[in-house]
Amino acid sequence: MAQQARAIRTRRLLLDAAAAVFGERGYERATIGEILNRAGVTKGALYFHFASKEDLALGVLGAQLLDEPLTPQETKLQELVDQGFLLAHRLQTDSLVRASVALALDSGATGVDRAAPFKAWVDQVAEALTVAKARGEILPHVNVLDTAELFSGAFAGIQTMSQVLCDRKDLTHRVVVLLQHVLPSISTPAVLTGLDMSQERARFLAAEYEEVRQRREEGGPANAEE
Amino acid sequence: MAQQARAIRTRRLLLDAAAAVFGERGYERATIGEILNRAGVTKGALYFHFASKEDLALGVLGAQLLDEPLTPQETKLQELVDQGFLLAHRLQTDSLVRASVALALDSGATGVDRAAPFKAWVDQVAEALTVAKARGEILPHVNVLDTAELFSGAFAGIQTMSQVLCDRKDLTHRVVVLLQHVLPSISTPAVLTGLDMSQERARFLAAEYEEVRQRREEGGPANAEE
After folding, report:
1. In which band, very low, low, confident or very high, does the pLDDT at A224 lie, cut at 50, 70 and 90?
2. Are A68 and A55 contained in the same domain?
3. In the prediction, which pLDDT does B108 show?
4. In this structure, are A70 and A53 located in the same domain?
5. Are A157 and B158 a contacting pair at CB < 8 A?
6. Which residues span the domain enclosing A126?
7. Of A62, A112, A128, B36, which is the most exposed, with the fewest CB atoms less than 10 Å away?
8. Alpha-carbon distance A43 to nearest alpha carbon in chain B (angstroms)
9. Are B133 and B203 in a shared domain?
10. Does A107 contact B106 at a Cβ distance shorter than 8 Å?
Protein backbone atom coordinates (compact mmCIF):
# COMPACT_ATOMS: atom_id res chain seq x y z
CA MET A 1 0.00 0.00 0.00
CA ALA A 2 2.82 2.42 0.89
CA GLN A 3 4.44 1.63 -2.46
CA GLN A 4 1.22 2.32 -4.31
CA ALA A 5 0.79 5.60 -2.46
CA ARG A 6 4.35 6.54 -3.45
CA ALA A 7 3.63 5.76 -7.11
CA ILE A 8 0.49 7.91 -6.99
CA ARG A 9 2.53 10.74 -5.47
CA THR A 10 5.29 10.46 -8.13
CA ARG A 11 2.71 10.47 -10.90
CA ARG A 12 1.11 13.57 -9.43
CA LEU A 13 4.54 15.28 -9.10
CA LEU A 14 5.18 14.61 -12.79
CA LEU A 15 1.74 15.87 -13.85
CA ASP A 16 2.11 19.01 -11.72
CA ALA A 17 5.55 19.68 -13.21
CA ALA A 18 4.34 19.06 -16.77
CA ALA A 19 1.30 21.29 -16.20
CA ALA A 20 3.52 24.09 -14.88
CA VAL A 21 6.00 23.86 -17.75
CA PHE A 22 3.23 23.64 -20.39
CA GLY A 23 1.63 26.69 -18.80
CA GLU A 24 4.84 28.74 -18.83
CA ARG A 25 6.42 27.69 -22.14
CA GLY A 26 3.44 26.43 -24.06
CA TYR A 27 3.15 22.75 -24.94
CA GLU A 28 5.22 22.97 -28.12
CA ARG A 29 8.34 24.40 -26.52
CA ALA A 30 8.22 22.40 -23.29
CA THR A 31 10.93 19.71 -22.96
CA ILE A 32 10.98 16.45 -21.05
CA GLY A 33 14.27 17.55 -19.44
CA GLU A 34 12.69 20.64 -17.94
CA ILE A 35 9.72 18.64 -16.64
CA LEU A 36 12.11 16.12 -15.03
CA ASN A 37 14.07 18.91 -13.34
CA ARG A 38 10.93 20.53 -12.05
CA ALA A 39 9.48 17.29 -10.72
CA GLY A 40 12.76 16.23 -9.14
CA VAL A 41 12.29 12.56 -10.12
CA THR A 42 14.48 10.20 -12.14
CA LYS A 43 14.14 9.59 -15.85
CA GLY A 44 13.27 5.98 -15.03
CA ALA A 45 10.41 7.06 -12.83
CA LEU A 46 9.08 9.33 -15.58
CA TYR A 47 9.14 6.61 -18.23
CA PHE A 48 7.54 4.18 -15.79
CA HIS A 49 4.49 6.48 -15.76
CA PHE A 50 4.57 8.24 -19.15
CA ALA A 51 5.95 7.13 -22.52
CA SER A 52 6.41 10.61 -24.04
CA LYS A 53 5.68 14.30 -23.79
CA GLU A 54 2.37 13.73 -25.54
CA ASP A 55 1.54 11.04 -23.00
CA LEU A 56 2.23 13.59 -20.24
CA ALA A 57 -0.11 16.02 -22.00
CA LEU A 58 -2.83 13.36 -22.11
CA GLY A 59 -2.25 12.78 -18.38
CA VAL A 60 -2.66 16.50 -17.71
CA LEU A 61 -5.78 16.63 -19.92
CA GLY A 62 -7.23 13.63 -18.05
CA ALA A 63 -6.84 15.35 -14.67
CA GLN A 64 -10.03 17.36 -15.18
CA LEU A 65 -12.16 14.23 -14.98
CA LEU A 66 -13.00 12.85 -11.54
CA ASP A 67 -11.09 9.66 -10.81
CA GLU A 68 -13.75 8.52 -8.35
CA PRO A 69 -17.45 8.10 -9.03
CA LEU A 70 -19.81 10.59 -7.41
CA THR A 71 -22.00 9.60 -4.48
CA PRO A 72 -25.20 8.25 -6.10
CA GLN A 73 -28.26 10.48 -5.69
CA GLU A 74 -31.98 9.90 -5.99
CA THR A 75 -32.02 11.32 -9.53
CA LYS A 76 -29.40 11.25 -12.28
CA LEU A 77 -30.02 14.95 -12.89
CA GLN A 78 -28.92 15.70 -9.31
CA GLU A 79 -25.73 13.77 -10.00
CA LEU A 80 -25.19 15.91 -13.10
CA VAL A 81 -25.70 19.07 -11.03
CA ASP A 82 -23.24 17.72 -8.44
CA GLN A 83 -20.68 17.01 -11.14
CA GLY A 84 -20.85 20.62 -12.32
CA PHE A 85 -20.40 21.94 -8.79
CA LEU A 86 -17.47 19.61 -8.12
CA LEU A 87 -15.67 20.62 -11.30
CA ALA A 88 -16.11 24.27 -10.32
CA HIS A 89 -14.62 23.53 -6.89
CA ARG A 90 -11.68 21.64 -8.38
CA LEU A 91 -11.00 24.44 -10.86
CA GLN A 92 -10.95 26.89 -7.97
CA THR A 93 -8.62 24.85 -5.77
CA ASP A 94 -6.48 22.47 -7.85
CA SER A 95 -3.78 23.93 -10.11
CA LEU A 96 -3.53 20.67 -12.05
CA VAL A 97 -7.23 20.78 -12.99
CA ARG A 98 -6.79 24.43 -14.03
CA ALA A 99 -3.76 23.51 -16.16
CA SER A 100 -5.72 20.65 -17.68
CA VAL A 101 -8.55 22.89 -18.83
CA ALA A 102 -6.10 25.59 -19.99
CA LEU A 103 -4.30 23.01 -22.16
CA ALA A 104 -7.59 21.84 -23.69
CA LEU A 105 -8.55 25.44 -24.50
CA ASP A 106 -5.08 26.53 -25.72
CA SER A 107 -5.44 26.97 -29.46
CA GLY A 108 -1.63 27.15 -29.76
CA ALA A 109 -1.19 23.59 -28.48
CA THR A 110 -1.03 21.82 -31.81
CA GLY A 111 0.23 18.25 -31.55
CA VAL A 112 -2.03 17.58 -28.54
CA ASP A 113 -5.39 15.90 -29.02
CA ARG A 114 -7.44 18.75 -27.58
CA ALA A 115 -10.65 17.06 -28.70
CA ALA A 116 -10.09 14.20 -26.23
CA PRO A 117 -11.14 16.02 -23.02
CA PHE A 118 -14.19 17.54 -24.74
CA LYS A 119 -15.22 14.10 -25.97
CA ALA A 120 -14.64 12.59 -22.53
CA TRP A 121 -16.87 15.22 -20.93
CA VAL A 122 -19.57 14.83 -23.55
CA ASP A 123 -19.49 11.04 -23.08
CA GLN A 124 -19.79 11.36 -19.31
CA VAL A 125 -22.68 13.83 -19.48
CA ALA A 126 -24.42 11.91 -22.28
CA GLU A 127 -24.22 8.71 -20.23
CA ALA A 128 -25.88 10.41 -17.26
CA LEU A 129 -28.57 11.95 -19.51
CA THR A 130 -29.28 8.61 -21.18
CA VAL A 131 -29.98 7.03 -17.80
CA ALA A 132 -32.02 10.10 -16.80
CA LYS A 133 -34.09 9.74 -19.97
CA ALA A 134 -34.66 6.02 -19.44
CA ARG A 135 -35.87 6.82 -15.92
CA GLY A 136 -38.24 9.51 -17.17
CA GLU A 137 -36.35 12.33 -15.48
CA ILE A 138 -35.99 14.36 -18.65
CA LEU A 139 -38.53 15.41 -21.25
CA PRO A 140 -39.05 13.12 -24.25
CA HIS A 141 -38.01 15.72 -26.86
CA VAL A 142 -34.50 16.12 -25.41
CA ASN A 143 -31.69 15.08 -27.76
CA VAL A 144 -29.18 13.60 -25.32
CA LEU A 145 -26.08 14.30 -27.43
CA ASP A 146 -27.03 17.92 -28.20
CA THR A 147 -27.69 18.63 -24.54
CA ALA A 148 -24.50 16.88 -23.39
CA GLU A 149 -22.45 18.93 -25.86
CA LEU A 150 -24.18 22.10 -24.78
CA PHE A 151 -23.38 21.45 -21.10
CA SER A 152 -19.74 20.67 -21.84
CA GLY A 153 -19.19 23.58 -24.19
CA ALA A 154 -21.09 26.12 -22.10
CA PHE A 155 -19.25 25.06 -18.95
CA ALA A 156 -15.89 25.49 -20.70
CA GLY A 157 -16.90 29.00 -21.69
CA ILE A 158 -18.31 30.19 -18.38
CA GLN A 159 -15.22 28.99 -16.55
CA THR A 160 -12.97 30.87 -19.02
CA MET A 161 -15.04 34.00 -18.58
CA SER A 162 -14.97 33.65 -14.80
CA GLN A 163 -11.20 33.20 -14.93
CA VAL A 164 -10.69 36.26 -17.12
CA LEU A 165 -13.04 38.51 -15.14
CA CYS A 166 -12.31 37.52 -11.53
CA ASP A 167 -9.87 34.60 -11.29
CA ARG A 168 -12.81 32.13 -10.99
CA LYS A 169 -14.08 33.62 -7.70
CA ASP A 170 -17.67 33.67 -8.97
CA LEU A 171 -17.55 30.33 -10.77
CA THR A 172 -20.01 28.57 -8.44
CA HIS A 173 -22.55 31.33 -8.98
CA ARG A 174 -22.09 31.05 -12.75
CA VAL A 175 -22.67 27.29 -12.58
CA VAL A 176 -25.89 27.90 -10.61
CA VAL A 177 -27.00 30.35 -13.33
CA LEU A 178 -26.18 27.85 -16.12
CA LEU A 179 -28.12 25.08 -14.37
CA GLN A 180 -31.10 27.34 -13.63
CA HIS A 181 -31.33 28.36 -17.28
CA VAL A 182 -30.88 24.93 -18.85
CA LEU A 183 -32.49 22.41 -16.50
CA PRO A 184 -36.06 23.79 -16.77
CA SER A 185 -35.84 23.09 -20.52
CA ILE A 186 -34.88 19.43 -20.14
CA SER A 187 -36.19 18.21 -16.77
CA THR A 188 -39.67 16.93 -16.06
CA PRO A 189 -41.42 19.28 -13.60
CA ALA A 190 -41.55 16.77 -10.74
CA VAL A 191 -37.80 16.09 -10.93
CA LEU A 192 -36.97 19.78 -11.38
CA THR A 193 -38.75 20.63 -8.12
CA GLY A 194 -36.56 18.20 -6.23
CA LEU A 195 -33.22 19.36 -7.66
CA ASP A 196 -30.83 21.18 -5.36
CA MET A 197 -28.91 23.68 -7.53
CA SER A 198 -28.01 26.01 -4.66
CA GLN A 199 -24.69 27.46 -3.52
CA GLU A 200 -25.22 25.52 -0.26
CA ARG A 201 -25.26 22.26 -2.19
CA ALA A 202 -22.00 23.30 -3.89
CA ARG A 203 -20.40 24.05 -0.51
CA PHE A 204 -21.53 20.72 0.94
CA LEU A 205 -20.11 18.79 -2.02
CA ALA A 206 -16.79 20.65 -1.84
CA ALA A 207 -16.39 19.81 1.85
CA GLU A 208 -17.25 16.14 1.23
CA TYR A 209 -14.79 15.98 -1.68
CA GLU A 210 -11.95 17.47 0.37
CA GLU A 211 -12.57 15.02 3.20
CA VAL A 212 -12.34 12.00 0.87
CA ARG A 213 -9.27 13.42 -0.85
CA GLN A 214 -7.49 13.99 2.45
CA ARG A 215 -8.22 10.46 3.64
CA ARG A 216 -6.84 9.11 0.38
CA GLU A 217 -3.69 11.18 0.57
CA GLU A 218 -3.07 9.84 4.03
CA GLY A 219 -2.88 6.43 2.39
CA GLY A 220 -6.11 5.01 3.73
CA PRO A 221 -8.99 3.69 1.61
CA ALA A 222 -10.85 6.43 -0.25
CA ASN A 223 -14.10 5.54 1.41
CA ALA A 224 -13.81 4.63 5.10
CA GLU A 225 -16.96 2.50 4.98
CA GLU A 226 -15.55 0.15 2.37
CA MET B 1 -15.30 58.88 -50.14
CA ALA B 2 -12.53 57.08 -52.03
CA GLN B 3 -10.05 58.30 -49.44
CA GLN B 4 -12.23 57.03 -46.62
CA ALA B 5 -12.60 53.66 -48.32
CA ARG B 6 -8.79 53.48 -48.63
CA ALA B 7 -8.34 54.26 -44.93
CA ILE B 8 -10.83 51.50 -44.03
CA ARG B 9 -8.90 49.09 -46.24
CA THR B 10 -5.52 50.01 -44.70
CA ARG B 11 -6.93 49.60 -41.20
CA ARG B 12 -8.27 46.20 -42.13
CA LEU B 13 -4.90 45.19 -43.68
CA LEU B 14 -3.17 46.13 -40.42
CA LEU B 15 -5.69 44.24 -38.28
CA ASP B 16 -5.46 41.15 -40.50
CA ALA B 17 -1.65 41.25 -40.32
CA ALA B 18 -1.66 41.77 -36.54
CA ALA B 19 -4.18 38.96 -36.09
CA ALA B 20 -2.04 36.61 -38.20
CA VAL B 21 1.19 37.45 -36.36
CA PHE B 22 -0.48 37.21 -32.91
CA GLY B 23 -1.87 33.85 -33.93
CA GLU B 24 1.49 32.47 -35.09
CA ARG B 25 3.88 33.96 -32.52
CA GLY B 26 1.54 34.67 -29.63
CA TYR B 27 0.84 38.24 -28.59
CA GLU B 28 3.88 38.58 -26.33
CA ARG B 29 6.47 37.74 -28.96
CA ALA B 30 4.84 39.54 -31.88
CA THR B 31 6.65 42.69 -33.03
CA ILE B 32 5.37 45.83 -34.73
CA GLY B 33 8.05 45.33 -37.41
CA GLU B 34 6.71 41.94 -38.37
CA ILE B 35 3.14 43.25 -38.51
CA LEU B 36 4.27 46.13 -40.77
CA ASN B 37 6.05 43.73 -43.10
CA ARG B 38 3.05 41.46 -43.30
CA ALA B 39 0.60 44.30 -43.95
CA GLY B 40 2.86 45.93 -46.52
CA VAL B 41 2.02 49.45 -45.31
CA THR B 42 4.25 52.28 -44.10
CA LYS B 43 5.09 52.97 -40.46
CA GLY B 44 3.30 56.30 -40.80
CA ALA B 45 0.11 54.56 -41.93
CA LEU B 46 0.32 52.20 -38.97
CA TYR B 47 0.71 54.97 -36.41
CA PHE B 48 -2.09 56.93 -38.07
CA HIS B 49 -4.42 54.05 -37.13
CA PHE B 50 -2.84 52.49 -34.03
CA ALA B 51 -0.64 53.99 -31.31
CA SER B 52 1.02 50.74 -30.15
CA LYS B 53 1.03 46.95 -30.26
CA GLU B 54 -1.54 46.92 -27.45
CA ASP B 55 -3.71 49.28 -29.45
CA LEU B 56 -3.52 46.83 -32.36
CA ALA B 57 -4.56 44.04 -30.00
CA LEU B 58 -7.56 46.10 -28.85
CA GLY B 59 -8.42 46.63 -32.53
CA VAL B 60 -8.26 42.87 -33.15
CA LEU B 61 -10.34 42.20 -30.01
CA GLY B 62 -12.92 44.76 -31.15
CA ALA B 63 -13.37 43.03 -34.51
CA GLN B 64 -15.71 40.43 -32.99
CA LEU B 65 -18.37 43.06 -32.35
CA LEU B 66 -20.61 44.09 -35.23
CA ASP B 67 -19.77 47.57 -36.46
CA GLU B 68 -23.27 48.05 -37.81
CA PRO B 69 -26.53 47.73 -35.89
CA LEU B 70 -28.73 44.75 -36.69
CA THR B 71 -31.94 45.16 -38.62
CA PRO B 72 -34.58 45.90 -35.95
CA GLN B 73 -37.07 43.08 -35.34
CA GLU B 74 -40.50 42.89 -33.77
CA THR B 75 -39.02 41.64 -30.48
CA LYS B 76 -35.68 42.34 -28.80
CA LEU B 77 -35.28 38.62 -28.17
CA GLN B 78 -35.37 37.97 -31.91
CA GLU B 79 -32.59 40.56 -32.30
CA LEU B 80 -30.59 38.68 -29.65
CA VAL B 81 -31.13 35.41 -31.53
CA ASP B 82 -30.06 37.13 -34.76
CA GLN B 83 -26.92 38.46 -33.08
CA GLY B 84 -25.92 34.94 -32.06
CA PHE B 85 -26.46 33.59 -35.58
CA LEU B 86 -24.48 36.45 -37.14
CA LEU B 87 -21.53 35.95 -34.81
CA ALA B 88 -21.53 32.25 -35.70
CA HIS B 89 -21.50 33.14 -39.40
CA ARG B 90 -18.69 35.66 -38.96
CA LEU B 91 -16.63 33.14 -36.96
CA GLN B 92 -17.09 30.65 -39.78
CA THR B 93 -16.11 33.03 -42.57
CA ASP B 94 -13.92 35.89 -41.27
CA SER B 95 -10.38 35.09 -40.13
CA LEU B 96 -10.15 38.41 -38.28
CA VAL B 97 -13.19 37.58 -36.15
CA ARG B 98 -11.67 34.15 -35.44
CA ALA B 99 -8.36 35.74 -34.45
CA SER B 100 -10.21 38.20 -32.24
CA VAL B 101 -11.96 35.47 -30.28
CA ALA B 102 -8.77 33.38 -30.13
CA LEU B 103 -6.89 36.34 -28.63
CA ALA B 104 -9.61 36.89 -26.01
CA LEU B 105 -9.48 33.20 -25.04
CA ASP B 106 -5.65 32.87 -25.14
CA SER B 107 -4.59 32.50 -21.52
CA GLY B 108 -0.96 33.11 -22.57
CA ALA B 109 -1.74 36.64 -23.80
CA THR B 110 -0.82 38.55 -20.66
CA GLY B 111 -0.48 42.28 -21.24
CA VAL B 112 -3.73 42.35 -23.25
CA ASP B 113 -6.98 43.33 -21.56
CA ARG B 114 -8.77 40.07 -22.32
CA ALA B 115 -11.66 41.12 -20.08
CA ALA B 116 -12.58 43.94 -22.49
CA PRO B 117 -14.28 41.83 -25.20
CA PHE B 118 -16.16 39.77 -22.59
CA LYS B 119 -17.40 42.97 -20.96
CA ALA B 120 -18.35 44.44 -24.34
CA TRP B 121 -20.41 41.34 -25.17
CA VAL B 122 -22.07 41.27 -21.76
CA ASP B 123 -22.93 44.98 -22.10
CA GLN B 124 -24.43 44.47 -25.53
CA VAL B 125 -26.53 41.46 -24.47
CA ALA B 126 -27.54 43.09 -21.17
CA GLU B 127 -28.72 46.17 -23.05
CA ALA B 128 -30.92 44.06 -25.32
CA LEU B 129 -32.28 42.09 -22.35
CA THR B 130 -33.04 45.28 -20.40
CA VAL B 131 -35.17 46.56 -23.28
CA ALA B 132 -36.78 43.10 -23.62
CA LYS B 133 -37.64 43.15 -19.92
CA ALA B 134 -39.12 46.66 -20.07
CA ARG B 135 -41.28 45.49 -23.00
CA GLY B 136 -42.46 42.43 -21.09
CA GLU B 137 -40.73 39.98 -23.44
CA ILE B 138 -38.88 38.19 -20.65
CA LEU B 139 -40.09 36.74 -17.38
CA PRO B 140 -40.01 38.99 -14.29
CA HIS B 141 -37.62 36.74 -12.30
CA VAL B 142 -34.82 37.02 -14.89
CA ASN B 143 -31.66 38.71 -13.64
CA VAL B 144 -30.50 40.57 -16.74
CA LEU B 145 -26.80 40.61 -15.84
CA ASP B 146 -26.66 36.91 -14.92
CA THR B 147 -28.39 35.93 -18.16
CA ALA B 148 -26.21 38.25 -20.27
CA GLU B 149 -23.06 36.77 -18.74
CA LEU B 150 -24.37 33.26 -19.28
CA PHE B 151 -25.05 33.94 -22.97
CA SER B 152 -21.61 35.47 -23.51
CA GLY B 153 -19.70 32.81 -21.60
CA ALA B 154 -21.65 29.87 -23.00
CA PHE B 155 -21.26 31.17 -26.54
CA ALA B 156 -17.49 31.50 -26.09
CA GLY B 157 -17.36 27.89 -24.92
CA ILE B 158 -19.55 26.31 -27.60
CA GLN B 159 -17.60 28.06 -30.34
CA THR B 160 -14.31 26.77 -28.87
CA MET B 161 -15.72 23.27 -28.68
CA SER B 162 -17.04 23.48 -32.23
CA GLN B 163 -13.62 24.69 -33.40
CA VAL B 164 -11.77 21.88 -31.63
CA LEU B 165 -14.15 19.13 -32.76
CA CYS B 166 -14.93 20.12 -36.36
CA ASP B 167 -13.37 23.46 -37.32
CA ARG B 168 -16.68 25.25 -36.50
CA LYS B 169 -18.65 23.42 -39.21
CA ASP B 170 -21.51 22.68 -36.76
CA LEU B 171 -21.46 26.05 -35.00
CA THR B 172 -24.87 27.19 -36.28
CA HIS B 173 -26.45 23.97 -34.99
CA ARG B 174 -24.78 24.49 -31.61
CA VAL B 175 -26.14 28.04 -31.43
CA VAL B 176 -29.65 26.71 -32.20
CA VAL B 177 -29.22 24.19 -29.34
CA LEU B 178 -28.02 26.90 -26.92
CA LEU B 179 -30.97 29.15 -27.79
CA GLN B 180 -33.49 26.31 -27.54
CA HIS B 181 -32.23 25.40 -24.07
CA VAL B 182 -31.97 28.91 -22.63
CA LEU B 183 -34.77 30.96 -24.18
CA PRO B 184 -37.67 28.90 -22.75
CA SER B 185 -36.30 29.77 -19.28
CA ILE B 186 -36.32 33.52 -19.83
CA SER B 187 -38.93 34.32 -22.50
CA THR B 188 -42.63 34.83 -21.92
CA PRO B 189 -44.60 32.06 -23.69
CA ALA B 190 -46.21 34.40 -26.23
CA VAL B 191 -42.87 35.84 -27.34
CA LEU B 192 -41.20 32.42 -27.32
CA THR B 193 -43.76 31.10 -29.79
CA GLY B 194 -42.91 33.85 -32.24
CA LEU B 195 -39.12 33.46 -32.11
CA ASP B 196 -37.35 32.07 -35.14
CA MET B 197 -34.34 30.09 -33.88
CA SER B 198 -34.02 27.91 -36.96
CA GLN B 199 -31.08 27.12 -39.23
CA GLU B 200 -33.09 28.79 -42.03
CA ARG B 201 -33.13 32.05 -40.08
CA ALA B 202 -29.35 31.75 -39.66
CA ARG B 203 -28.89 31.22 -43.40
CA PHE B 204 -31.11 34.18 -44.27
CA LEU B 205 -29.17 36.49 -41.92
CA ALA B 206 -25.82 35.33 -43.27
CA ALA B 207 -26.89 36.09 -46.86
CA GLU B 208 -28.21 39.53 -45.85
CA TYR B 209 -24.98 40.31 -43.97
CA GLU B 210 -22.79 39.33 -46.92
CA GLU B 211 -24.82 41.50 -49.26
CA VAL B 212 -24.43 44.58 -47.05
CA ARG B 213 -20.71 43.89 -46.55
CA GLN B 214 -20.11 43.56 -50.27
CA ARG B 215 -21.91 46.82 -51.00
CA ARG B 216 -19.81 48.55 -48.38
CA GLU B 217 -16.56 47.15 -49.72
CA GLU B 218 -17.44 48.46 -53.13
CA GLY B 219 -17.39 51.87 -51.52
CA GLY B 220 -21.10 52.59 -51.64
CA PRO B 221 -23.29 53.36 -48.64
CA ALA B 222 -23.89 50.37 -46.37
CA ASN B 223 -27.62 50.57 -46.91
CA ALA B 224 -28.69 51.35 -50.45
CA GLU B 225 -32.00 52.83 -49.30
CA GLU B 226 -30.33 55.51 -47.18
Report:
1. very low
2. no
3. 66
4. no
5. yes
6. 63-217
7. A62
8. 29
9. yes
10. yes
Torsion sign, CA atoms A101, A106, A107, A108: negative
* pLDDT tens-digit map of A171-192: 999 999 999 999 999 999 999 9
- The residue with greater pLDDT, B9 or A130, is A130
Number of domains in chain A: 2
Question: pLDDT tens digits, residue range B160-213?
Answer: 999 999 999 999 999 999 999 999 999 999 999 999 999 999 999 999 999 988
Do A70 and A56 have their domain in common? no
Which residues of chain B make contact with A120, given a CB cutoff of 8 A?
none
| B39: enclosing H helix or E strand | helix B32-39
Q: Are residues B110 and B133 in the same domain?
A: yes
Chain B residues touching chain A at CB-CB below 8 Å: 26, 102, 104-108, 114-115, 118-119, 143, 146-147, 149-150, 152-165, 174, 177-178, 180-182, 184-186
Residue B222 lies in a domain: no
Q: What is the reported pLDDT for A111? A: 74
Residue A223 lies in a domain: no
Instruction: Report the distance separating Cα A222 and Cα A224, nearest Å.
Output: 6
Q: Which of B125, B150, B174 to mutate to test the interface with A (most CBs of A within 10 A)?
A: B150
Are the Cβ atoms of A174 and B149 closer than 8 angstroms? yes
For B72-78, the CB contacts below 8 A with 24+ separation are: B74/B194, B75/B132, B75/B135, B75/B137, B75/B191, B75/B194, B75/B195, B76/B128, B76/B129, B76/B131, B76/B132, B76/B135, B76/B137, B77/B128, B77/B132, B77/B137, B77/B138, B77/B183, B77/B187, B77/B191, B77/B195, B78/B194, B78/B195, B78/B196
Q: What is the CATH number of the domain that holds A32?
A: 1.10.10.60
The reply to whether residue B182 touches residue A181, judged by beta carbons under 8 angstroms, is yes
Looking at this predicted complex, what is its ipTM?
0.88
Lowest mean pLDDT among A59-73, B80-94, B114-128, B152-166: A59-73
